[in-house]
Each structure stands twice: as structure tokens, then as C-alpha cells.
Amino acid sequence: MPPQDRENAPEQGEPVESSAQNYCRSKFCCITVDDTQQSCKDVAMKKLSASDVGQGLLHCTDVAGKGCHHINSLGQTDIEGLSGLQNVSIIFKGSSCPGCIRKVSRALESMPFLHNLRLRTIPLQATFDVEITKISIRGMMEAVRTKTGRQCERVGEGWQKLVVLSNPAVDLINPIPPAGVMDIERLRKHTFCIRYDAREIGARELLKAFQAETGFPIDLAPAEAYDEIPGDVRRTGCLTCVSSILTLPILILAWAPFPKHMLQYDVTSLVLATLIQIVVAGPLYPKALRSLFIDKTIDMDLLVVLSTSITYLLSVASFICEAVGSQLTSGMYFETSALLISLIMLGRFLADFACHRVIRSRSVRSLQPQSAFLVDMLAANGNTSKQLDVRLLQLGDMIEIKPGHVAPTDGVLLFGESKFDESILTGEDGLILKSEGCAVIAGSTNKSAAVVIRVSRLPGTNSISDIADMVEEVSQSKPRSQLIADEIACWVVPAIGILAVSTLLVWFLVGKLVRNEPAGSAILHAVPYAVSVLVVSCPCAIGLAVPIVQVVASNIAANHGLILKSSEVMTTARNVDHVVFDKTGTLTNKEMSVIDEHYCSKSKIFVAALTLALTSSSEHPVSSTVAKHLQCGSVKAAHVTNLATIAGKGIGGVMNGQTVRVGNARWLGVEHSPLVQSVLHKGLTTMCVVQGDELVAVFGLRSSIRSDAAELILKLKQRGIRVSIMSGDESGAVHRVATELQIPLTDTWSKCTPQEKQQQVKELMHSQAKTVLFCGDGANDAAALTQASVGVHITDGVGFADSTADAVITNTSLKGILLLLDLSRDCYFQILFGFSWSAFYNLFAIMLAAGLLIKIRLPPEYAGLGEMVSVLPVVIVPLRLRWKKYLKS
């Protein structure tokens, strides 16, 4: 048994009952006793002897690395015997430049117990499977931190996070956690992060449980603003300030009209430069050495360490020579090394800060309110509300939203009626009336009367989070341009090292053979050129050119009600030359009206009840319209069992042992019925009902064309883009819409099944070499959305998270298609600028630093500005897209 397990195990023969609480906390842990796998809980309940448990602990699968001693369940697991894999996602703190990503990737790939690694760029997040039989989750997290040298935290799908402050006498790692707690992590001495499943336990219940267990109150830690500067950026800023403060006296002593290099001044400069080297540049050494010897990579940290070390050591050598009365003609002194480090740190700080502001500024997550008014329906003095932190909300809570206030989370309106402004999330102007039973989305603003809603989703997992997650997810899938950029960036750093060595060799030969200098003097004159080359180049701009544009474009799109779900769509959509629309719910409004209603049976009431039973649970526009029409006529639904929806066809079921179906005439085989034909000739959408093989009802529906459809199609045509309609509806209804929108009937397809839509889109793409955009609204469009070069799903803002499309329009406005095309074009030019600037900068800077421009030379101390000059334009220039007025023309 491992020593840590022996320390915590009870004495031989002691019943487990007294120590079961210390060992058996996770329902997912397994113990092998007498060659039989049993859960830890079962072992404890049987009160086996400690010797049995001791033997079992040798095979115990837990998450903490100490038998079952630590907290934490395995969350969402996939355990198969003792060879289980658990899916884990972790987010790394710090920058996400290509070198950082490559180091993290290599470090994780070298860990034998991790599999199926997937990385995203901004923020840097890794998802992988862990062999929990080989290492605990807590042990894995520590191994990842050690291996990568970066701080990280675990995240989970659907998890809620609560950061709390405990009493100094309490360690939350030790008490038994209540059911529903997934993970507890110590952030600081008395600050803990609790991750829990809100379906099992609420935040307020969680705090009460810990307080009851420990006997001390547990308070929430101060909320961290979403746009707050991260700790690593703040640390870089502090080190930059320290370096600047220490460098300033050195520069004064070197550049002021004082006697040159008096020993007292030199000693002062030596001390200050040494402090800078240790305090400011010191943290870079472990990172550089880890990358070189563990990750087997050469990164910018190594180049910085080499350059700063060379300049510092030469400065010390110059000081020693001067102190003994000789002179070292290196051309570098303490002001060189100090200024070099200060400018490098300044460049890194400005670049990291700019990236942070681009990523966090105007993000959808910033719309999340920090407080809510909890309603107490059982209060003695009537219904009262009290303000509380949104982090303490629980599922099922009733909260009051006052006029002018923002909905803190998603919910269902229980009491009252008011108008809400959802434009901040959907980009669509206008107020929406909400009455009892309506859904209220997080981030919308109440504009009239106070209402009470019941919480259905918590902050962190609500509509704001859904949109923000989808916006951030764009950076996980890389377009081809990003893959090329990453590959180039990985070769830039080694190439810089080779160029620096080549520069050193060339200038040494120039000094030796052309200037006839001694070897020592020639080397000293060549070193500054090599140092400048090492420092001035920067591959970060190459790697950031695409992700920064992705982040900016995704936020712009989200603010206009367009969610980009694929990074490739930003480079593909600009080439679209054929747009194919679904009809029902896409070019037409979802709200339809029943124009014709025919019953073939004498029992109209029975057929109406049958029809309502089949259609009431469907979300398809045709079925839902008929259901509402019948409900308005006070029809009561019949009892139908075995309901099944067949995409693109209809709905089937069984009533009194007989098959009943509702759907299109072709599927039901009644398209030649005179009654059906009479409805079709009117250009109406037809829905038929059959009992067995008998036609019992026919409904004719008409939908109005969207108000923005005609304008959109006109603008697409003006751009030279071909427009088509592809629908599962009857020909008459499709042709009527095409005629009103001035779309040639030769570019319309009707009576299409989902498979036929997919095949037709595929043929358009291949036969005509077209970049096809397909826009649809329903599940029957999923295959076509996936097949098209660009798939756009138009929805009312509900249920879009699982869409298979490349982009989702959440405000039902077709103008989102124009936004997508324009944004894609602008993104292409921004990415092109980023690559061009990076290439131009690195080429020119290396020529300048290497002394190829004979009359212009870049001293080593100023080469530290390289990262700032290289990265800032790539980060800042794309911000101009935020001020461009999209959809205004």
C-alpha cells in the first residue's frame, strides 16, 4: 500500500464503520475485495475489516491520489471495469501564442495516461481522456501544471462554479462534501473554488451544508469582473514597472553628462542591472530550460534568455576590465542589458494587455448582471423580494425583474406582463411583449412593468453563456490559414537562432578579414548584431493574425444576432456565389394561417380531436399552426399512442389499434384525391390526415413572406449571387413564393425530402463548382445545412446550441446573411494584413538588426521593442471592424 494510504488507514481489525466517512466519498470509486469489484460505499456499508479495505485500496480508483481520502466524484465518467477513461477539459491561464500552444501540446502528448487530445487557441483550452486507473484526477492536474509550467483549472459541461472564503480554522478539502459536489480546488490559503451539479444541490444549500459540517460560516469571495485584467497580465505589468524603475537610474548614470564610468557609478549600475536580471528576467529561465530540455522546443523565451544573458555577462566583463584598468570593446554596458529587458517586458505587457482587451471587451458575457431580487412567496408580510448575488440563485427560484432592469438569467414568466428589449442579444430592434408562460432570456431588459419569473437556467449555463460559448468555440476549430500560420510560426524561432549564428559568423569574418581586427575584438563587435537578431524577431504576430480576427468578428456577429459556429465559415463565406433558401419558416414567416379546412368524415369532432392529438406536440410550422387553429375552436385532443415524427413527411401514431397519420399528401398517398388537388391548385400548403388508408381531413395553409426577404434577395442579385428555393412543400405554394420574390421558377425545387435536399445541394456544389450557402430553419434541413459550403440556421433564439450549421441567426432576420458575407470579406483582408505585416516586419527588422542596411543599425537595447512593434498592429487594426456600420446600408 502506498505510504499515504497507510497513514490514513485504520488499524488492523478495526471496523470500517468509524472511518468509512474518511474513505468512501465517491460513488464512482471502486475497491477490489476478494477479487470482486465493489463500490467504496458498498464496502463501507458492509463494515468490512480494515485489513480488507487496506488490500482493496491497492486497486482503488479515486480522484485524489490517496485512496478514497479526498473529496471529488468523477463527474461525467465512462468507467468500464478498471480500465475507465474520463473526459476532462482544462483551461490554461496566460498567453496563447503559437509557441505556447505547441509547448502545451507537446507536454500533454508526452503524458502516457492522456489520450484524444484536442486544443483550442483563445483561450487556451485542452480536452482529453484520462486513464483514471493509472492516475487520479487531482494527481493529473498537478502533473499537467508541472509538465507545462502553467496554471490551469478544470471545467465541466453544465458545472456551476462557486468561489468561497472559509474561516482560517477550516480547510474545505477535508470535510465531507455534500452530494452534488464535483470538485474542490484551493485557489489561495483560505479561498476555494467549488464546482457542483446544480441539479443535485443549490448554491445556498451548498453553503449551508458546509457551514453545518465545519461549524463556521462560508462566504462568497468578491466577484471577479469578466473584463478584469488577468493575474498573469498584471504580473507582467508589475515586472515591467519594476524593471523601468531600476533601469531609469542606470540610463541617467550612462547618458547624463557625468564623468564617464566612474567606479561608483559602475558599481551602482552593476547592482541595479543584477537585480533586473534576477527579479525580472529570472522567471524566464525555468520556462526556457523546460522548453529546451523537456519539451524539446526552441521558443522565444529561450532567445530572450540567451540575448539578455549575453548582454549582461558582457556588461559584467566590461565592468571587470574597466575596474582593472583595461577596456573591453564590446560596445555594450549595463544600460544595454537593463534597457533590453525593460523594453522586452514592456512589449510583452502591451501585447498581452491588447489581446486581453480584444478578447474580453464588449463580450456577450459582460451582459450578465451581478445581482437579482429573490421573491419569498411565503413571507409573513406578503410576497417580498431581497437582493442577492446571482451566484446564489438556484433552479426553481422566483425572482422579480423590475422596470429598467436586466433579466439575470433564463426563466419562465409566472406573474405579470411586460415588454422586453432583446436587441442586445439578438441584434433585432423592437420590444417583445411577454405574458404568463413566456420564456424570458438572460440579458434582455424589462421596459414596462415589474414581473416575476421562475429560474430555469442558472448564470454560467444560460442564454448569455450559450452564445458566449459558441462565440468562443470558433477558436477551437482552425481554418486552413491558421494551420499554415502555426506551422510557419513553429519554424520561425529555430530559423531566428540560425540567422543569429550566421550573423555572428559573418560579422566576425568581416572584422577579421576585412578590418584586420584581432579575433577577440572581431567577436566582440559581432556579438551586438547577433543579439539584436535574437531579440528583434517575433513569430507571435504570425500566430495571432487569425485568432484575433476570429475573436473580433465573432463578437461583432453575436452583437448583430449572428452566431458563428465554425472558424472556416469566416474564410469561406466571402466566396459564396449561390444562396439556397428553404421556404417554410425561412423565406416565409413561421406564423401561418388555415385558409381551407375540409373533413371527409361525418364525425368532424372526432377527426379534429385526432388531428390535434397528432399535431399538438410538433414544432413544425404547419403542424403547430393547425394545432393552434383547432385549440382555438375548443377541440379536445384524442388519445393517440406511439407517436413518431418522420422528418420531411409527417407524424404517425396508433389509436384504438388503428394507424393514424398526418403529413403531406405524397407520403400519405392521397395526392391524386380531387379534394387535395383543389387545395393544391390554390397555391396553399397542404396537410392531410388519414385513418388507416382513408383520407379523413385536408387543411390548406398560407404563410406570409418575411418583410425583409424581398430586399435581401434583391441585394444578393445585385452582388451577382444566384438565389434558389428548395422546399418540401407542394409546387403551387413554392411557385407562389418564388413569383412574389422574383426568383425564376427554374431555380426552385419542391416536394424535396431531407435526403433530396442534401443531394441537390451536393450536385450544385460539384457540377457547377459553386460555393453554396444553404439557409434553413428546421430539423429537416440539417442534412442540407451540413452538406453546403456554408450552412446558416435561422431560429428565434431558442434551441440553437446543437445546430449543425456553420452559423446561426438568432433574431429571425435574414439580413444576417448579408452580415456574414460582408464580415467574411473583411476578415479575409484583416488576416491578409496580419500575415503581410508580420512578414514585412520580420524581414525588415532582421535586415536592420543584422546590419544589412549598412548606414542604419539597430542597437541591441532597442531591439527589445520588437514584440510590441510586431504584435500591436496585428491586434489593434482588426478593432476597426467594430466601428464599421454593418447592415446600415
TrEMBL record:
SUPFAM superfamilies according to UniProt? Calcium ATPase, transduction domain A, Calcium ATPase, transmembrane domain M, HAD-like
**Per the record's keyword annotation, is Magnesium included, yes or no?**
no
Question: What residues does the P-type ATPase A domain cover?
Answer: 381-472
Q: Where are the transmembrane segments?
A: 237-256, 262-281, 302-320, 332-351, 488-510, 522-546, 831-856, 862-881
Q: Which Pfam families match?
A: E1-E2_ATPase, HMA_PCA1, Hydrolase
The PCA1 HMA heavy metal-associated domain is annotated at 158-223
Transmembrane helix recorded as keyword = yes
Q: Where in the cell is it found?
A: Membrane
Q: What are the protein's UniProt keywords?
A: ATP-binding, Membrane, Metal-binding, Nucleotide-binding, Translocase, Transmembrane, Transmembrane helix
The Swiss-Prot or TrEMBL record annotates one GO molecular function as: ATP hydrolysis activity
Q: What does UniProt give as GO cellular component? A: membrane
Q: Sorted alphabetically, which PANTHER family does this protein's record hold?
A: P-TYPE CATION-TRANSPORTING ATPASE
The family this protein is said to belong to: Belongs to the cation transport ATPase (P-type) (TC 3.A.3) family. Type IB subfamily.
Name of the protein in question: Uncharacterized protein
Name the source organism.
Heterodermia speciosa
